[in-house]
Amino acid sequence: MEHPMKIALIGYGKMGKAIEAAGRQAGHSFPLIIDLSNQQELTAASLSQVDVAIEFTGPHSAADNITTCLDAGIPVVSGSTGWLDQWEKVSAHCHAKQGCLIYSSNFSIGVNLFFAANVWLAKLMKAYPNYRPSIEEIHHTEKKDAPSGTAITLAEDLLAARPDLSAWINEPSTTPELLPIISKRIDPTPGTHRIQYSSPIDDIELIHTAHNRTGFANGALLAAAFTQNKRGIFSMREVIGF
Fold first, then answer.
1. Has residue 236 got a pLDDT over 60?
2. Does this model's pTM top 0.85?
């Protein structure tokens, strides 16, 4: 068994509970669990009893939670989405504190393979502009942000490979230089992402469908183990070893 970790779990929704279940099964412990009802208990003193924090909350609290952990000298794994407008400030704080932060819009190893496949396909399709790309993402109705962080990562990677596209837009569009992302909220979907290249003749699709949250939870625990004795900012690319 990997070295058992003492983990602070910040955010106790569907994802937090899945991480706890997978973590306890692997022999880790959770001396500190923070949710909306006890947010005030997230302090330097309470964090002193853990090795690492795993943070899955929402757009309004993520940056503050990460900063509190870094101030306490605790490495952080964050999967919160919708807060990246504060990325520069948080990353500068991490470097100033010589801390460790792993951020990913999606910790699933399968999704990170999917990210790599998306880049490869985007480069391949660059020579065939008659195929028009679009992205669709489907999640459960409790998901607060749209489009999903995973869909934004897919879109930004695709845009980087396609200079003829200028931006993504979260609605259907026929404007040639825009990449449409269609967001759907249907229960009980843990997460489906589809990249489609459509031409008048045929379609090419790349699809990732999560069957449950176990893949995300295992990836977050893998990232937590990776933080030990490290300084700096990392992504799942480094954790998986791409």
1. yes
2. no
